[in-house]
Amino acid sequence: MYSASELQSQFGLRTMRASDLDLVVQNEVSSYEHPWTKRIFIDCLRGGYLCWVLASKDKVVGHGVMSVAIGECHLLTLCVHPDHQRLGHGKRMLRFLLDKAYRLNASVCFLEVRHSNNEAMALYQSMGFFPIGERKNYYPAEQGREDAVIMSLGLPL
Length: 157
Hints:
- With about 160 residues, the chain is of the alpha+beta class.
- The chain has one domain (about 5-155): Gcn5-related N-acetyltransferase (GNAT) (Aminopeptidase, 3-Layer(aba) Sandwich).
- About 30% of the residues lie in helices and about 40% in strands.
- The protein has helices at about 5-10, 20-30, 40-45, 90-105, 120-125, and strands at about 10-15, 50-55, 60-70, 70-80, 110-115, 130-140, 145-155.
């Protein structure tokens, strides 16, 4: 059995490429009931967002997308394939993206998370994010819509 640090070292962070998108979308489909589409990721790449993957030579196990502008950043998505969760990959990617945003002069980060996504909220809170509000009916859900919790974190970490 490999330790979490040995498993982490198998994967490196690099910028997302168009050639990654099919694997990125597969991760989304494996992770979420309402995944982002390939078109959304294409738009993010074209829009100049920070788009990164956690990957080996032949596998993408995680991805994150963040916008940075006018002194703030917004984490748009952070996803780790279910087979690779709880190994520190999400925290590693989040820390990396926040550092990138800070280096681009962001002094605060915002995100929305599903009210029911306790695991993601625990990750964000462990990094210092705190709730600052709600967006009613923000996310599509199996039975209508679900509220989002808005969270914030001052940078640098």
